[in-house]
Amino acid sequence: MRIDQIDLYVIELRLNHVFRASTHGAGTLRHVVVRAEADGLVGWGEAPTPVDPYYTGETTDTAWSVLHDFLAPSVLGHTWDTVEEFTALYSRVKANNFARGGLETAAWNLLAAAHERPLSALLGGAARSAVEAGVSIGMDRDPGRLCDTVQRHVDQGYRRVKLKIGPGADLDVLEAVRARFPTLPLMVDANCAYTLQDTPHLQKLDAFDLMMIEQPLAWDDLADHAVLQRNLRTPLCLDESLTSAKRTRRALELGSCQVVNIKPARLGGLREAALAHDLCLAAGVPVWCGGMHDFGISRAANIALSALPGFTLPGDNSGSDKYFDRDIVTPETRAEHGLIAVPDRPVPYEVDMGFLAAHTRRHARLTATDSPAVRTR
């Protein structure tokens, strides 16, 4: 397979509701969308970056720069047959996982089209027709309003609710939600808002029968999480800290967590995500698939990945209608009674090019004949 043309787009969509976490918030998203042409086929990818550097450091602008100046020129005009061969073409590029994952997703989708097999099958997924969907709810300091939001999603059938928390917005929130929903599968996500010195406070969360506490400590930490886990009954789950399969293996060895959130974008693509999954499966550690307010391209890839056998907990990839009035693909991802169907076709959606054009804020086309040489630093 040989990619002869890559189009990059910055697509802007407005969220239905402003989403707030302990370190950041968002009302409008700008993701880099990748369109790759090879052998008469088209593969789409997406880098679902935040617009600011408060999650893992990448932004829309950094993803655009790395894709445009380094990743796309590295693969244009080169022949490859597997994703391993494809990613080797840009192996010199360090970090920048969202950008790398956006390009790699396009390659996976090209292979799915070429082999006429669903992406889930290429990844080695189990024969699942659907995966369980959870929902992530942003911070809201009004307990009554937050409980009403939870109720709305419970009524829609979502199998698990995740609440964003932070210092000063944790115990009161959980007391209100647990009082109204005593048996609801519930977890919390701190997005790195605490330190190890907060251990006595975090121990109070053990009283709320939580499925897990996600990423309470620093985004690049493994050691302190291991200490904290030994002092909590509630399982810890890592997100920001796990940027590769190697880091995932180290976290399991240290005992830094008992659950793992696998986000393909954070890990640099589906291949690395599958490797992290395999490590967790071998260690008996449950995993679930996180999300980044993904557009339909990345969302469909996440659902395909979630068909792997280790994904035993509901993920964050709920229906597109929870986030947007309209997605860039048709059909959109939908959750029905808390379940999302695993795509069973090689190309399970069409990108609405008219809608895409109307929401494009930047566009560039690179070809094998005129793309710049890869720069070195």
Structure overview:
The protein is of the alpha/beta class and 377 residues long. It folds into two domains: 3-116 and 353-367, Enolase-like, N-terminal domain (Enolase-like, domain 1, 2-Layer Sandwich); 121-351, Enolase-like C-terminal domain (TIM Barrel). Helices cover 33% and strands 22% of the residues. The protein has 13 helices and 16 strands. It has a seven-stranded parallel beta sheet. A four-stranded antiparallel beta sheet has the order 3-2-1-16. Helix 1 crosses helix 3 (97-115), helix 5 (143-155) crosses helix 6 (171-180) and helix 9 (245-254) packs parallel to helix 11. The protein is globular, with a radius of gyration of 20 Å. Residues 373-377 have low confidence and may be disordered. This is o-succinylbenzoate synthase. InterPro entries: Enolase-like_C_sf, Enolase-like_N, Enolase_C-like, Mandelate_racemase_C, Mandelate_racemase_N_dom, OSBS/NAAAR. It comes from Streptomyces crystallinus. Keywords: Lyase, Magnesium, Metal-binding.
